[in-house]
Specification:
By secondary structure, the protein is of the alpha/beta class. The chain is built from nine helices and eleven strands.
Amino acid sequence: MYPCCAGHEIVGTAVRVGNKVRDEIKHPDKETESVWARNPAVVFGRTARNALLDSSTIVRMQPIRTIAPTGMVTTLTVANGAGPGKRVGVIGIGGLGHFGVLFAKAMKCDRVVAISRGENKRDDALKMGADLYIATADEPDWAATHANSLDLIICTVSSARMPLNDYLGLLCTKGRFVQVGLPEGPLPPLNAGDLVLKGSSIGFSNIASPGEIKQMLDLAAKAELQPWIQLRPMSDVNQVIQDMGQEKARYRYVLVNE
């Protein structure tokens, strides 16, 4: 819908505000002037030089301009109990999944397991902090070898062909599987019997509350968490979209106004 410029999370500075905007956004300190906008349904101008935003979508943040953590991972890590004593698996090591690994490690989870189809991301995932990498296409017995080993699984993929029941088999008793990748079609058939016997559960998540997002942004600053991103000029947006479609991103593109 012209002139709607689609995009995703943005980081910038509040330059004009309405008279009902809360004080921390209206009068930012020089040291912490950046604000982060979560992803409402429609935002006008998100890939432009300026964006008109509802103040309810704005969170004040420390000056880390190269990080744009997603509200989806925020919801998972805060609301689903990731932290000490938990073994967390992240399925899909991409723009979203790599944040899952970084945050789970920063939250001092006992074990962080990166799960992907092939071996090509193993070295990167281990450098991000994963304790174990599972390549499902190259390890025929992966499901049996790692069964009942995880307390929480964050699934960032959504293919109708993904081995959903094998993933669920990785959960321990009372484990939780949270689907974040937005499916374009139906998910694979579910074997509910295994979930019932272990008391496991499945949940879904899209975005976090401003308070949860603020909590994770503060953690990112405290832990000096560095995302694996590639800065691209805003003028290259059309090429960036093509590169994303070809899975060239390692692991998230950030468009920067020139």
